[in-house]
Amino acid sequence: MDQENDGLQIQSGFSAGPEEWKERTQQIREALSARLIRLESGEAQGAESDKLIGEMRALIRRLKRDQRSMFGCLAEEAAVVDEMETRLRDAERAGRRRFGLFRPGPTNAQIEQAERSLHHFAQGRSVYKLFWVFFIGCFAGVLIEQAWCMIRYGFFEPRVGLVYGPFNLVYGIGAWALTAALYTYRNRSKLFSFLGGALVGSGVEYLCSLFQEMVFGSASWDYSGRPFNLNGRICLLYSVYWGILGVIWIKSIYPRLAALILKIPNRIGRPLTAALAVFMLVNSLMTGAAVLRWMERTKGLPAVSAYHEWLDGHFPDKRMERLFTNLKFVINDAEQMPPPEGKSLPGME
User: Fold this and answer.
1) Residue 324, SS3?
2) CA 67, 68, 72 angle in degrees (round to 5)?
3) Contact present, 185 and 176 (Cβ < 8 Å)
4) Residue ranges of the alpha helices (H) in 97-189?
5) Is the model's pLDDT at 7 over the cut of 50?
6) pLDDT tens for residues 305-322?
7) Domain residues for 149?
8) Are 68 and 170 within one domain?
9) CA distance 177 to 189
10) Which residue has the higher pLDDT, 152 or 166?
11) Is there a contact between 135 and 276 (Cβ–Cβ < 8 Å)?
12) For residues 184 and 186, what is the distance between their CA atoms, to the nearest angstrom?
């Protein structure tokens, strides 16, 4: 569409080639410069000045609208090119065996095609898919961390986060959040996955730490000694780790995980999901109650009900310490131990 201004026609740049684009830019510069010179020199006064200002503002507004439209089209085109290039690269890699032995996992595009063809109950980013990602993440994260502890420190140490079974909600929530946030960019370049993973992972880690401290008065990690940390809950180094994990997750781990979920038959998928969801909910609530009672015992608070006595009997200190080896309560000395009779605490004299 042509844009008119006092006899001057400036062609839209949507279909312009390089030379036409340069000519159009020069026309814009000359049209605006001529009017600005008249205004700046004081040649145009009164009504003529107002007319020139109105013409220039109208032209600038139209040009800005044109630019926004062009930027939108270019951004959409860039997204399409990036997605197609990424899918092509993934398809090429899918046909190769690593080191001549290991066949790479399926691509995200292949998973999506399989889900559609099977009319699977856990397609795409559905509630069912996200729950299974969360559930498997809770389990797999514990196994990986325990293996890492064994390799690095040479001894076995439970790294669970729930009282029943080898599950840790932090890993499950992290897997769920990475999948939910990065699924839209699953077929985009690794830069999107890295940035998204760093932001989402750091956010999950910060919120989990804050929730644990506010609700249970405890902490499982502290990055205060590391550079560029935020309240000791997250730090730059681990944010970079989260970014790298985001790339590995959505490009390699998630497709394999989705392929595993595809093996769950449709006839049992939904009821099995519901049963496991109830189990995880009860497990989480019981863990919360056991940890809160454990915290009360560290303060010397006695059991005041049969329910408290049941918790003390089923989840004594030794069992809780064995399950949650890294959990430390953030409790003031004044809360744990009353001052000796006749003496005051420091700062209370």
Assistant:
1) strand
2) 115
3) no
4) 108-118, 127-153, 169-182
5) no
6) 999 999 999 999 999 988
7) 108-335
8) no
9) 19
10) 166
11) yes
12) 6
